[in-house]
């Protein structure tokens, strides 16, 4: 093995796994050397970690000798240059220490000022949870919702933000800084794990243009300009007239006089839109051929440089003499997808509050708008007989639903009202992170939504449509939903937008959606010939006119929203049924009889009269949302389930059952979190949240003996169900097969391996079982044993492996100095776009082959010092991983293949290169990696593209693995496109335990 490669900064931590030390910190050769470990101590520690029995398991002696030679050379250089050089070094270190101290003081002052400002305004408590997510490093502020703000401290006080997640301007408002004018959009504009756009520039552009009276500048990589323009067109201007689908939006035979005039109505709301174009709000600049972009002028000039070989941005400013100063370094992957200790994404302020769903009612997820830092954007759930229809879910609403103990299966549909970011961002997030989503809207709005998010994600439109089920709705035609009926209408807005009314028996509610309900507007538009008589009459019969039990009406900022005065002047008979949404609570006068819908509250419009019947209906609706009980008949609930189910509350840290215990009950989690603990030494356990069944596998397990301990992590509310009763009703073959496979999975080591993988542990039970079924039986590999990954994947079930290249590949250790120099030059030329295609096939690629430490070295290398050689190797190793790939293009092609033709080959577009992926995104097989339990090892090129694989897996200790062949993987992902999106994104994450 080439130890100098292991000495690079990237691979210094290879052989030690998290959890091996009390602090949980990974320690590698580089750290050991810096900390002054002796050669014997290093060898003993690495031998203990890796299980090797070699005298020098990974060449620690070679590494130490090289480092000693480098240090000796550096000291000799200092001696030659004399004390002046030594003084310069000391001065440099002194300056660095002073700079660190200044940055720490800056961070403390910044936080103190921010908290003081919020306290003075009475807002500290409301924002305390977001402030805790703020991290400041020098000139960089890591924003709570994601993204990084760089303060340049130039005379013009230029701020530059990298990454634009949804609602990002609220972070600026909370922190008391101006909304930036300059934004840098990464090559990957979408976070596929979190399901959110990282290029949500819509509201920053509106705020800068309408409030700050200036234009936003978006800086992006070459080729993204057209996508950004397409996104902004759908939100600012709306669809073109030829994209209006009135023949599919309205019932056949509808009088055209009822059709809206979207563009004309928008102009009547806001005449300033007549000559408004996207370029008036947005300037788009692409990095030049050298990877540079300039903002500001004169003394405030700032340069942003993208370094492809490091996958990072560097920000520079200049003094009056033109001297350059680097002020920030930002990684291209600026997503901040956080998890708390319970595995939830970014906890909301809401604690666990189990919700009993009404027979008919509304739960409010958010009631504000995109410019309110204190509130979530408007969205809510309409409940009908225990089934939920979500309207415009706010970003992150899945966490709120989980805290309310609402399982994903209880949500049976989403209504999308229109394609502004404060309404559609959360919708697409749920589509990407959930399965079997049904989307209700009109065809015109649906097509606009698909065009927008195809541009955001770079994914094929046909593939996006396959992620969910589109339920096309006709204006004015009732849409049935579990005993209720929704009836849609087009409101007045700047782009196509729908409101609706929902009726259930004698009870009903209506939602205005974004609109202006001023009755003078339809009359004016009719008189000016903008709309016909039928459309005018429909608009005059607005949400404030009906006799509905509940009215949700927007109250945003005029002229495109309804004036507060109009709502304040409504009669008391309307106000007593009226709740305002899309408004900041502090903007509503306290003395006019108006009220804002309260976040996370539930309004009951109709409730079960019989309490016993109510509880029985809750049991039925709750359990029927699970895959296990979804086919159980009503009479079976009456005969077996109702009398065998008990609702219990369990305090924190309570053991529900222990390993070896004979099981008589299974559990359904209504609220809280339960940890299932096995005897595994590597897994931290499996967590069950609201909507999960615990112990269902015992229905088909004759022994009924628990193989794990279940303990409450929080206070939990559960349904306790007798297993014998469940056995009487679960008789569908599909359900029984699921349980049998689940029982096999939970008895295997693969169950713990899934828990160790950040991606797989978030899969549903069904997804885990399906994934388990496509793996082969366990294979044991003895130390130093190898298996190849030719069109196969490998899951490490127990043990540690090296991921390495086939031994037929030339080793860098066997190359001459001239060959190294030539290789580095060629790779640099190719990675910058010149030279031949950047593909390294068998026999012509250069990579490091572990296991060659003792091999005789070539005498031709003697004239190159260890330090110079190490630097060349680092340079070469970087360039080998940098063949240019149009990643979105590749992913689009791959997805199209998996979704449509599993056996076809992929035709990449002519501008893209092939195979090797960028270093910090896809980790190339040329990089020596280590995989521990839970690591999934795939050669994406071999598995998907069927290129010859050079990848092998070598066991460090006795290791058990499961293999995954190409055909099984493709069939699995072809039928689960949402999983494919997560999997592809995990290839590009350094934390996912997916090695490519």
UniProtKB/TrEMBL annotation:
<keyword id="KW-0460">Magnesium</keyword>
<feature type="region of interest" description="Disordered">
    <location>
        <begin position="822"/>
        <end position="870"/>
    </location>
</feature>
<dbReference type="GO" id="GO:0016787">
    <property type="term" value="F:hydrolase activity"/>
</dbReference>
<dbReference type="InterPro" id="IPR000595">
    <property type="entry name" value="cNMP-bd_dom"/>
</dbReference>
<keyword id="KW-0963">Cytoplasm</keyword>
<dbReference type="InterPro" id="IPR014710">
    <property type="entry name" value="RmlC-like_jellyroll"/>
</dbReference>
<dbReference type="InterPro" id="IPR018490">
    <property type="entry name" value="cNMP-bd_dom_sf"/>
</dbReference>
<feature type="domain" description="Cyclic nucleotide-binding">
    <location>
        <begin position="628"/>
        <end position="757"/>
    </location>
</feature>
<keyword id="KW-0378">Hydrolase</keyword>
<keyword id="KW-0479">Metal-binding</keyword>
<keyword id="KW-0547">Nucleotide-binding</keyword>
<dbReference type="GO" id="GO:0000166">
    <property type="term" value="F:nucleotide binding"/>
</dbReference>
<dbReference type="GO" id="GO:0005829">
    <property type="term" value="C:cytosol"/>
</dbReference>
<dbReference type="InterPro" id="IPR036866">
    <property type="entry name" value="RibonucZ/Hydroxyglut_hydro"/>
</dbReference>
<protein>
    <recommendedName>
        <fullName>Cyclic nucleotide-binding domain-containing protein</fullName>
    </recommendedName>
</protein>
<dbReference type="GO" id="GO:0046872">
    <property type="term" value="F:metal ion binding"/>
</dbReference>
<feature type="compositionally biased region" description="Basic and acidic residues">
    <location>
        <begin position="854"/>
        <end position="870"/>
    </location>
</feature>
<dbReference type="Pfam" id="PF23023">
    <property type="entry name" value="Anti-Pycsar_Apyc1"/>
</dbReference>
<comment type="similarity">
    <text>Belongs to the metallo-beta-lactamase superfamily. cNMP phosphodiesterase family.</text>
</comment>
<keyword id="KW-0677">Repeat</keyword>
């Amino acid at each position: 093995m080439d130890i100098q490669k292991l000495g690079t900064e990237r691979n210094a931590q290879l052989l030690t796994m998290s959890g091996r030390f009390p602090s949980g910190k990974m320690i590698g050769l580089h750290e050991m050397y810096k900390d002054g470990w002796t050669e014997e101590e290093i060898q003993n520690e690495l031998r203990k970690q890796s299980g090797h029995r070699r005298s020098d398991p990974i060449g620690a002696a070679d590494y130490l000798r090289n480092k000693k030679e480098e240090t000796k050379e550096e000291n000799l250089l200092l001696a030659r240059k004399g004390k002046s050089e030594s003084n310069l070094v000391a001065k440099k270190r002194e300056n660095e220490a002073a700079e660190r101290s200044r940055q720490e003081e800056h961070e403390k002052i910044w936080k103190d000022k921010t908290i003081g400002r919020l306290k003075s305004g009475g807002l500290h408590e409301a924002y305390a949870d977001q402030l805790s997510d703020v991290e400041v490093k020098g000139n960089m502020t890591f924003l709570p919702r994601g993204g990084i703000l760089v303060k340049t401290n130039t005379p013009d006080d230029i701020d530059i933000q990298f990454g634009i997640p949804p609602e990002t301007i609220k972070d600026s408002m909370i922190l008391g800084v101006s909304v930036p004018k300059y934004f840098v959009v990464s090559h990957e504009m979408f976070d596929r794990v979190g399901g959110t756009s990282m290029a949500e520039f819509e509201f920053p552009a509106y705020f800068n243009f309408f409030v700050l009276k200036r234009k936003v500048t978006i800086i992006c990589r070459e080729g993204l300009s057209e996508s950004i323009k397409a996104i902004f067109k759908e939100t600012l201007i709306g669809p073109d007239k030829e994209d209006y689908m009135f023949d599919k939006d309205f019932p056949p035979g509808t009088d055209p006089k009822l059709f809206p005039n979207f563009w004309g109505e928008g102009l009547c709301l806001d005449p300033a839109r007549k000559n408004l174009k996207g370029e008036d709000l947005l300037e788009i600049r692409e990095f030049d051929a050298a990877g540079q972009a300039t903002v500001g002028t004169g003394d405030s000039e700032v340069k942003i440089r993208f370094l492809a070989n490091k996958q990072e941005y560097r920000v520079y400013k200049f003094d009056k003499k033109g001297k350059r100063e680097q002020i920030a370094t930002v990684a291209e992957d600026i997503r901040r997808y956080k998890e708390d200790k319970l595995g939830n994404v970014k906890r909301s302020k809401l604690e666990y509050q189990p919700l009993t769903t009404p027979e008919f009612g509304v739960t409010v997820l958010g009631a504000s708008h995109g410019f309110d830092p204190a509130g979530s954007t408007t969205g809510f759930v309409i409940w009908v007989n225990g089934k939920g229809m979500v309207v415009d879910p706010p970003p992150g609403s899945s966490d709120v639903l989980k805290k309310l103990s609402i399982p994903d299966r209880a949500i049976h549909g989403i209504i999308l009202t229109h394609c502004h970011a404060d309404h559609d961002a959360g919708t697409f997030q749920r589509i990407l992170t959930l399965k079997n989503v049904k989307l209700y809207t009109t065809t015109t709005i649906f097509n606009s939504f698909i065009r927008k998010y195809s541009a955001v994600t770079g994914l094929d439109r046909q593939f996006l449509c396959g992620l969910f089920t589109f339920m096309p709705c006709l204006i004015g035609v009732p849409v049935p939903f579990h005993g209720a009926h929704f009836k849609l209408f087009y409101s007045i807005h700047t782009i196509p937008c729908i409101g609706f009314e929902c009726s259930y028996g004698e009870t009903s509610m209506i939602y205005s959606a974004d609109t202006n309900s001023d009755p003078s507007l339809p009359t004016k538009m009719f008189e000016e010939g903008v709309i016909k008589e039928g459309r005018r009459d429909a608009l005059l019969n607005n949400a404030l006119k009906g006799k509905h039990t509940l009215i949700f009406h927007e109250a945003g900022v005029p002229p495109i929203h309804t004036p507060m005065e109009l709502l304040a002047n409504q009669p008391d008979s309307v106000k007593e049924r009226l709740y305002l949404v899309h408004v900041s609570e502090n903007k509503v006068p306290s003395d006019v009889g108006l009220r804002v819908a309260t976040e996370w509250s539930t309004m009951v419009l109709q409730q079960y009269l019989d309490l016993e019947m109510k509880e029985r209906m809750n049991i039925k609706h709750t359990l029927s949302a699970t895959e296990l009980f979804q086919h159980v008949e009503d009479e079976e609930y009456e005969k077996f389930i109702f009398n065998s189910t008990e609702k219990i509350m369990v305090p924190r840290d309570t053991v529900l059952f222990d390993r070896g215990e004979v099981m008589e009950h299974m559990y359904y989690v209504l609220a809280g979190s339960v940890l299932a603990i096995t005897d595994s030494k590597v897994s931290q356990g499996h967590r069950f949240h609201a909507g999960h069944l615990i112990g269902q596998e015992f229905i088909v397990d004759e022994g009924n003996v628990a193989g794990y301990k279940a303990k409450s992590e929080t206070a939990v509310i559960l349904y306790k169900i007798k297993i014998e009763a469940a056995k009487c009703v679960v008789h569908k073959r599909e359900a029984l097969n699921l349980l049998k496979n689940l029982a096999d999975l939970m008895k295997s080591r693969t169950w713990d391996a899934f828990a160790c993988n950040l991606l797989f542990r978030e899969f549903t039970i069904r997804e885990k079982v399906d994934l388990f079924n496509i793996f082969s039986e366990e294979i044991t590999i003895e130390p130093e044993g190898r298996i190849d990954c030719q069109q196969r994947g490998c899951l490490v079930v127990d043990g540690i492996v090296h991921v390495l290249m086939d031994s037929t590949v030339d080793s860098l250790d066997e190359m001459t100095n001239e060959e190294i120099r030539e290789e580095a030059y060629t790779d640099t030329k190719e990675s910058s776009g010149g030279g031949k295609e950047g593909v390294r096939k068998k026999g012509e690629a250069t990579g490091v082959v572990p296991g060659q430490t003792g091999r005789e070295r070539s005498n031709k290398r003697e004239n190159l010092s260890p330090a110079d050689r190490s630097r060349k190797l680092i340079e070469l190793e970087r360039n080998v991983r940098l063949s240019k790939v149009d990643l979105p293009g590749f992913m689009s092609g791959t997805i199209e293949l998996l979704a449509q033709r599993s056996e076809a080959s992929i035709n990449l577009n002519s501008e893209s290169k092939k195979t090797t992926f960028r270093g910090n995104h896809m980790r190339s097989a040329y990089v020596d990696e280590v995989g521990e339990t839970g690591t999934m090892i795939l050669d994406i090129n071999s598995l998907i593209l069927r290129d010859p694989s050079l990848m092998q897996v070598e066991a460090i200790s006795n290791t058990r693995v499961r293999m995954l062949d190409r055909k099984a993987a493709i069939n699995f992902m072809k039928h689960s496109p949402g999983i494919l999106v997560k999997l592809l994104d995990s290839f590009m994450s350094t934390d996912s335990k997916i090695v490519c």
